[in-house]
Amino acid sequence: MLQNKKLPAGALLLAGAAAFAYYKYSKMSADEKTKIVSDLKEKGQNLYEKYMPQEVKNMFAKDPIASAKSHFGEGNDYSS
Q1: How far are the Cα atoms of 29, 35, 40, 61 from residue 25, in angstroms, in the given order?
Q2: What are the φ/ψ torsions at residue 27 (nearest 5 degrees)?
Q3: Of 8-12, 30-34, 58-62, which one has max mean pLDDT?
Q4: What is the mean pLDDT of residues 56-67?
Q5: DSSP code for 37
Q6: Which residue of 1, 28, 45, 74 could cross-link 32, Cys pair, CB 3.0 to 4.6 Å?
Q7: Considering the entire predicted model, what is its pTM?
């Protein structure tokens, strides 16, 4: 038997907002789309720089050698 389950009102509002945002995005010119994407990337980078702990930033560093040195030292100071 199938039960009649109602969607929460919040889910319906969220779906409507997403559909409207997609509609507005699809009507934009290529220049407007590029500007929005670049603004979002810039805001994301600012959030990353401001709130991400340095240990996590080191794990995602583009230079793995520099990241390893920051985690494990230079290697010259250790003896076996």
Answers
A1: 9, 12, 14, 33
A2: -90, -5
A3: 30-34
A4: 72
A5: H
A6: 28
A7: 0.51
Are the C-beta atoms of residues 71 and 61 closer than 8 Å to each other? no
Token reading at 78: 């250790």
Q: How confident is the model at residue 56 (pLDDT cuts 50, 70, 90)?
A: confident
Domain that holds residue 39: 29-73
Tokens standing for residue 19:
């559909």
Q: What are phi and psi of 23, to 5 degrees?
A: -60, -45
Q: Say if residues 70 and 58 touch (Cβ distance below 8 Å).
A: yes
User: What is the total count of domains within the chain?
Assistant: 1
Q: How far apart are CA 75 and CA 5, in angstroms?
A: 62
Average pLDDT score, the chain: 82
Q: Is residue 6 part of a domain?
A: no
Q: Is pLDDT of 45 > 60?
A: yes
CA distance 22 to 15: 11
In a domain, 13, yes or no: no
